[in-house]
Amino acid sequence: MAKFVRLDKIKATAHIESIVASEDLLNGQFLALGELQPDGEARQAVPSGDVTKQLVFHASVPLTYEDRSNELDYVLKAGKTGRGYVLETGDIVSIDDATLVKGDLVVPDPTGFVKDADGVATGLRGEVIAIEIDAIVGRLAVIRVIAEA
């Protein structure tokens, strides 16, 4: 499961959903959107990889003022409002993942992007277009969305 997410190429006009979940969430998870919350803005979100549902890619801003905390430790706590991005064809994101290699086809999973084992997925999916090494994060899989839900 990814703990670090970098939004490499997301349109300035990207659709962002305010989300809230009943469990702690890590950046990079896929979430199915549910009911609008009483605040009139956030929607209930549940980890899911079901492409028949309205999915968003969790990428909340890890802003914290704690001394001993950094982006790699970030967790969106249950009940707090976060950000979910509706990914579109052509979007590029990077996630920390030690298993993916360049050329892998990936699909949504409740834990994040995972390798499409049989290569026949339909709906939202992506392709690993590069592997990068970040001095702080380590190994990043750069993923280009090749089809949207």
Q: What distinguishing features does this structure have?
A:
single chain, 149 residues, mainly beta, 6-stranded antiparallel beta sheet, 0% helix, globular
The radius of gyration is: 15 Å
Low-confidence runs of at least 5 consecutive residues = none
| Main sheet overview | 6 strands, antiparallel
Amount of helix:
under 10%
Strand content: 35-45%
Number of strands: 11
The order of strands across the largest sheet is 1-7-11-10-8-9
Task: Describe this structure in a few short sentences.
This protein has about 150 residues and is an all-beta fold.
Textual characterization of the structure:
- The protein is mostly beta strands.
- The protein has no helices and eleven strands.
- The radius of gyration is 15 Å and the shape is globular.
- The mean pLDDT is 91.
Layout of strands and helices, then pairs:
Layout: E1 5-9, E2 16-20, E3 30-36, E4 43-47, E5 55-58, E6 81-85, E7 92-96, E8 105-109, E9 112-115, E10 125-134, E11 138-147
Parallel strand pairs: 2-4
Antiparallel strand pairs: 1-7, 2-6, 3-4, 3-5, 5-6, 7-11, 8-9, 8-10, 10-11
